[in-house]
Amino acid sequence: MPDVNALRITWIEARRSAALWLGALGAAVAAAMLGDPERWDGLWMQTVLVHQANLALLWPFAVAAGAWQGRRDHAARVGDLVRAAPRPGASRVAPLAFVLAGALGGGWIAASAPGIGRAVLAASYRPPGWYWPLLVGGLAMGAAGLLGLGLGRLLPSRLTAPLLGVAGVVLSVVPLVIWRGSDAPALLLVPGNLGESTDEWATVATRADVGQALWFAGLAAAGWALYAGARYWSAVPAVIGLAAAVLVLPAADRAAPRDVHAVELVCADGTPRVCVTRLYEPILPALVGPAREALALLAKLPDPPTSVVQETAPYASFVAQRRDTVHLLLTVYGDGSTLDLTNAVLDGAGTWACGAPDDDLATWDRILAAREAAALWLRGGTSADPLVADALNALRALPAADQAARVGAMREAALACRKDQYETLLRPN
Fold first, then answer.
1. Is pLDDT above 50 for 360?
2. How many helices (H) and strands (E) would you count in the chain?
3. What is the DSSP annotation of 232-281?
4. Residue 166: predicted pLDDT
5. How confident is the model at residue 118 (pLDDT cuts 50, 70, 90)?
6. How far is CA 373 from the centre of its chain?
7. Number of Cβ within a 10 Å radius of residue 209
8. Are residues 217 and 275 both part of a single domain?
9. Considering only CA atoms, which of 38, 36, 96 is closest in space to residue 71?
10. Could you tell me if residue 259 is inside a domain?
11. Which domain covers residue 207, as residue numbers?
12. Do residues 241 and 302 share a domain?
């Protein structure tokens, strides 16, 4: 049977303290940070990962909130009276600690409900284990509150809460800036950090979840001990949690690997072959018609592609292109709409955008102009861009067979990721 007196005291503490209000404030801020009208609702796991990444700013808030509550007895000048009460230290502080940790952790988890709810309605793929990062994040927020409680009681100054908040932001940002590009597992101790390789197909490695949970559990126990008055051994749980976490955590670049099921191909019935990743399966019906229309237009070129497959590599990165396949970069907006899918397939005569370093903007201008000119030649149309217009005018001034040959030559240059795609379109070798 639950202790009725303990429940009653906890309920009184919930009403008389600001813990619930702090939890509600944290939840409201977290929900606002998670909302993104440009993110497609079908990206279930990405919604979870964005929510977890926001811990970088919400975790310092939770520490500051705990510190503000931790100095309550001192501010009311009843600290000595409370400590003189004939009750063990742990049971004396348990109600507020429980309420604050529950409000902050539970509020943070609840803030994900609107985004997860929209994902349930829009997504066809539910990533396995999607809830573990949410539970770890809730533990992190609760641990931050408990740590703040302990530090607020130890240092009951009015400056403690704001200084801890600032320190939390610094500790969440500075290590990632100083050691940018490092794969050290210790960087995963920073709240919200899962490395730099997360994208919409990412999941969270089990070792990353477990390691972070051990670290935050150690911090929670340290905060509890400090708040209960055990100053001398309060650091022990944090040290144990840190040691255990470092042993378990993977390298930072392996914390958020690709979900192999999310990138599995799902193909439409019939021919030509049109496929997307399982994550984007709801978009497949809208893609089939435009993709097959584009393949029919590409058929006028020498050795044309015969299928369209969604590509999962980042834009402008190197891709080992197949000659018979259009590697499509599929972009879906928040309302579920896409760019002109036919034109997306025709871009670059059905090739992947590549050919120059990211910082070589002049070359990229010419590559993109060549790609647009090839698409407009295939589909028909004009452009106000001088580079594109010059290429189109030069193409259309040639006999029909020579026009197709030049676009075919440009396609060969794009398949090889050469930087002379624009020049090839105008003056093929």
1. yes
2. 18, 4
3. TTTHHHHHHHHHHHHHH---GGGSS-B-TTTT-EEE-SSSSEEEEEGGGG
4. 96
5. very high
6. 35
7. 19
8. no
9. 96
10. no
11. 4-254
12. no
